[in-house]
Every structure is written in C-alpha cells, then in structure tokens.
Design brief:
Elements: H1 2-8, H2 22-29, H3 31-63, H4 68-104, E1 117-123, E2 128-133, E3 139-143
Antiparallel strand pairs: 1-2, 2-3
Helix pairs in contact: 2-3, 3-4
Length: 144
C-alpha cells in the first residue's frame, strides 16, 4: 500500500499528499496557483465530511429496521463513517488554516504587492521559507 501511495502522490509532504510543499509549489506553479490548490484540497475534505455525515444518517435510519446482524453492521458503518468524517473535518480545517496563514504573509512589507515573490531559501525543518518580492526586491520570511 505504501508503494502505491508513494508512486501516485505528487509530493513527499506528509501534511498533504495531493499538493506540493510551499517552497516547491511556489517554484513550480507560483504562489497564487499553490494557494488555489491548497484551498481546493481543503474543500474536497469538506465534501468528504458531508458525505460521511450522510452515510452516518443512512446507517442510523437503517438501524431501526434491521435484525441483530444488520444492527451490528449498521453500528459498524456508523462508527466508520464518523471516524472518516472527523478525520476529513480535521484535514479541512488544517489545510484551510495553513493556506490562510501563508496567504496572510504573502504581502510584500515594502511595496504591499500580494503573492508576487520567488522562493530564495527553504528550511523545511524550521518551517519557513525566505522569499523575494519580484516588484521591489525586498526579502522576508514566510512561516508555515
């Protein structure tokens, strides 16, 4: 299973398997597209949360009309759906807050240009990148 995930995933970032980490994403597609992809990924998790909620409601409704074996199956499906829903909700909130915290730092402190920078230095262990504004050349760190 791990080999399948590593072969189909775009990035090795444990936080988000579908999108690239900040520095690599900005270098490849630019900040605005990276930000858009982060938001799309987070909202996909919100849709998964809603689907898991519908599955929970379906299992709860089917519970009353089932025999003992069916009730056990409905309880198992309810708990599985609840676990998936909680995981997806946490991922949605994490990815959304991550994208928003980076976006709040994407304004150049000097010229106030939004999202027009290049990545100069990446420090994944320190969880920051040093960026340079393409308009005025000012450098500042973005923490994530």
């Amino acid at each position: 299973m791990a080999a399948l995930l590593s072969s189909c995933c775009v990035a090795d970032d444990p936080r988000n398997y579908l999108n690239r980490p900040l520095a690599e994403g900005v270098r490849r597609v630019g900040f605005r597209k990276w930000y858009e992809r982060e938001l799309l990924s987070s909202h996909a998790h919100l849709v998964l949360t809603l689907l898991a909620t519908v599955a929970m409601m379906g299992a709860a409704e089917a519970f009353g009309k089932a025999d003992l074996q069916g009730k056990l199956m409905d309880v198992a499906l309810f708990l599985i759906s609840a676990g998936i829903g909680l995981w997806a909700l946490r991922r949605y909130l994490y990815l959304l807050m991550h994208a928003e915290s980076v976006a709040n730092q994407a304004n150049c402190p000097d010229c106030k240009t939004y999202g027009r920078f290049t990545v100069e230095q990446d420090n994944p262990q320190g969880r920051w990148v040093r960026v340079c504004c393409r308009k005025c050349g000012h450098r500042w760190p973005i923490e994530y």
